Amino acid sequence: MMLLPADFHFLRPEWFYALIPLLIAVWFVKRWRAKATGWQGVIASHLYQHLITGKQQSVTSLFVPFLALTWLLGVIALAGPTWERIPQPVYQVKTGHVLVLDMSLSMRATDIAPDRLSRAKYKAIDLVNLIDEGDMGLVAYAGDAFVISPLTEDANTLNALLPGLSPEIMPVAGSDPVQGLRLAETLLTNAGFQNGMLYWITDGVEISQMKELSDFLSETPFKVNILGVGTAEGAPIKQLNGELLKRNNGSIVVPKLNAGALQQLSRQGGGTFAELTANDADIRQLSATGRFENRETEDNDNNNQGDEWREAGPYLLLLLLPIAAFAFKRGLIFALLVSVTLTLPTPPASAQEQQNQPAEAPEGAPQNDMPGLPWWKKPFLNADQQGLEAYNASQFDAASSNFEDPAWKGAAQYREGDYAAAAETYAQFDTADGYYNQGNALARAGQLDAAIAAYNKALEKRPTFPDAKDNKALIEKLKEQQDQQQQNQQNQQDQNQQDQSQQDQQQSDQQEGESGQDQQNAEQQNGQNQQDSQQNSQQDQQNADQQSEQEQQEGEQQDDQDAQSEEQQQQQGEQEEQHAQAQQGQQEQSERDKETQQRLNNLLRRVPDDPAFLLKRKMQLEAQKRQYRRPPDSNRSDW
After folding, report:
1. Same-domain pairing of 31 and 113
2. Each residue of 306-341: pLDDT tens digit?
3. What are the residue boundaries of the VWFA domain, all occurrences included (predicted)?
4. Which of 146, 317, 343, 401 lies 20 to 30 Å (CA to CA) from residue 449?
5. Domains identified in the chain, total number
6. d(C-alpha 141, C-alpha 119), whole Å
7. Could you tell me if residue 294 is left (phi over 0), alpha (psi between -120 and 50 degrees) or otherwise beta?
8. What is the pLDDT of residue 117?
9. Residue 240 CA to chain centroid, in angstroms?
10. Residue 285 pLDDT > 70, yes or no?
């Protein structure tokens, strides 16, 4: 028995209805062959098949099997068999994933080597690396739940935090899985995810917790996949000091994995349950549930939704080549083509097309008024199909005139560059996409205010529209730049006008000043003659006074030089003393710095080399804030 792939299906299964005419044809051929000769009514049926033999019958008997095989292969090829997906880069995955990890003391059980905790953390790292799409968060819980990592696209962040997790760093001992799942649900809800996946890695739950867990899983909109860690036989819990965990009565605690309860919870959560395995089959089973589900894309157009598959139907046509070669040799293909050609009607041409038909065109052939579209194809296409042909051929002018659908017509006008017409066409849509496209066209047309208003309407229809938000911010920034440029131009014009007025004022003042300049020159000439005579008499008196003063200054300078030499010697002694004191102070400061550095090194040696130290302190502070806000839970397990 041939095993088919798990994803094997047909893209167009309705083509199998074409097998009904084949069955009818085979039945008629058999009836016709049975009555082909007149001996059927004369010879008994049990003797007829032995008496009517020959080469003619053996040759004609091959026609029906070949026809049936050809028909069957053709129908299967047209039905589109496929089993392989094609990557779709046009989709941007926005799926949210949260990993919920059990950090109760029961994870120290040794029924799985080396213990449940180590194997669970290895599986968690493999699961994070396997889920390569969307955002991933990490939540750990024991007696209380804490966010270890918020939602992030960087898998290395979670891989760096997972090795440091252990039950000993949890501030509250016990096991309260409901708190962990609720906290994971809050992470996805606050991030805006309406669909998402929770991956719960645990070694079991208590019977008293089943009702609360069932109520949560029935209400949550997210799927919950569960990985069970442990065995049904269980094993003691080995603590870090080497001792086994015991109850108050002295008996050893042996936690066991109740796979049935976890499987029931996974069904209620709409997810998958898997038990821990030595290979990666368990995490692949969990990740396959959400691999192609719960996706939100940036493009919400229904035409772009769904999966793309690699079709294997064309390869089946290769099997028809030997049959076609045999049929060609027998002349069957030639007869078939002749019969089809004679029975097909010639497409009629309209009266207007015949009137506008050029003389060199073949008789009966309609005129082709759309470049790139064959004349024989146009009568079989409606207006939108003709517009699509022109659009695909980048003939956007012809496409916009042919399209009747407003969405396609607006797209063709936009690609043509007629942005004003495109904006008017998109104005017919009262949807988020319609206002978004209208805003794009208005922005291209330079109507920035109208474009911003269109983006606002799109955001009113769909608040979570990232493209509309980005384009609106871009247009607003562009509008601010234009306003700033206009303001600068206006300021420049005002400055030019002010400079021009100042230049005119200066020219007028200069002209007035030139008329009084001649009169001032004459007065200055008379005054200059009088000053020359006075200066000559004063010059002789000043020369005598300067000579006496110079002799007196030379005596005073000699006294000052002697006093300055004494002061310099005194200052040099003081500087030498200060330099000695500074060197002594630097030595003392160096000794103090060495002592301070030595004390810091001693303090650093006392800090424990624990990568989970910060996580522990963070969770302790958060637990202290919560202890007065939440009553104690009686259903919480002690381990």
Report:
1. no
2. 457 888 888 887 887 777 776 665 555 554 554 444
3. 96-241
4. 401
5. 2
6. 17
7. left
8. 93
9. 43
10. yes
Residue located via tokens 């392989």: 84
Query: Hey, what amino acid is at 509?
Result: D
**Do 266 and 272 contact (CB within 8 A), yes or no?**
yes
According to the model, what pLDDT value does residue 122 have?
A: 93
Residues 6+ apart with CB under 8 A from 185: 198, 220, 222
Please, what's the b/e burial string for 212-243 (b: 16 or more CB within 10 A of its CB; e: otherwise)? bbeebbeebebbbbbbbbbbeebbbbeeeeee
- Looking at residue 248, its pLDDT comes to 82
Asked whether the predicted pLDDT for residue 377 surpasses 70, the reply is no
Q: What is the pTM of this model?
A: 0.42
CATH number of the domain within which 164 lies? 3.40.50.410
What is the SS3 string spanning 180-241? Answer: HHHHHHHHHHHCCCCCEEEEEEECCCCHHHHHHHHHHHHHCCCEEEEEECCCCCCCCEECCC
Q: Which residues contact 112 (CB under 8 A, 6 or more apart)?
A: 119, 229, 230, 231, 276
Provide the angle, in degrees to the nearest 10, between the axes of the packed helices 448-461 and 432-444: 170
Residue that terminates a domain, selected from 346, 369, 403? 346
Instruction: Give pLDDT tens digits for 205-228.
Output: 988 889 999 999 999 999 999 999
Q: Are residues 63 and 153 in the same domain?
A: no
Tokens describing residue 266: 């996974």
pLDDT at 613: 72
Mean pLDDT of 528-541: 56
Which residues have a Cβ under 8 Å from the Cβ of 609 and sit 6 or more positions away?
Answer: none
Phi then psi dihedrals of residue 418, to 5 deg: -90, 75
Integer angstrom CA distances of residue 323 from 62, 192, 319, 334, 442? 11, 58, 8, 14, 60
Average pLDDT for 497-512 = 66
Task: Name, in order, each residue with C-beta under 8 angstroms of 50's C-beta and a sequence gap of 6 or more.
Answer: none
**Percent of the chain whose pLDDT exceeds 70:** 67
With 0-12 CB in 10 A as exposed, 13-18 as middle and 19+ as buried, what is 25? middle
Q: In the structure encoding, which two tokens stand for residue 360, read together?
A: 């060199």
Phi and psi at residue 360, to the nearest 5°? -80, -5
DSSP 244-299: BPB-TTSPBP-----HHHHHHHHHHTTS-EEE--SSSHHHHHHHHHHSSSS---S-
Strand arrangement, sheet containing 309-311? 9-10, 81-85, 309-311
Indicate if 190 and 294 belong to the same structural domain: yes
Q: Residue 276: what pLDDT?
A: 92
Residue 109: which H helix or E strand, with range? none
Question: What type of residue is 514?
Answer: E
Q: Do 328 and 299 belong together in one domain?
A: no
Which tokens in the block code for residue 516? 């009084």
The total number of residues written for the chain in this structure: 639
Radius of gyration of the chain (CA): 48
Q: What is the pLDDT of residue 38?
A: 54
- Same domain for 122 and 15: no
By C-alpha distance, which of 64, 40, 35 is closest to 51?
40
pLDDT tens across 69-111, in order?
Answer: 888 888 888 888 888 877 655 444 467 899 999 999 999 999 9
Q: Tokens 């291209």 label which residue? A: 444
| Residues in contact with 51: Cβ distance below 8 Å, sequence separation at least 6, in sequence order | 39, 43
Max Cα distance, the chain (Å): 175
Indicate the pLDDT class of residue 636, thresholds 50, 70 and 90.
low
Region 444-448 average pLDDT: 87
Domain that holds residue 6: 1-86+310-346
Nearest-angstrom CA–CA distance, 388 and 397: 12
Q: Which helix (H) or strand (E) holds 151?
A: strand 145-152
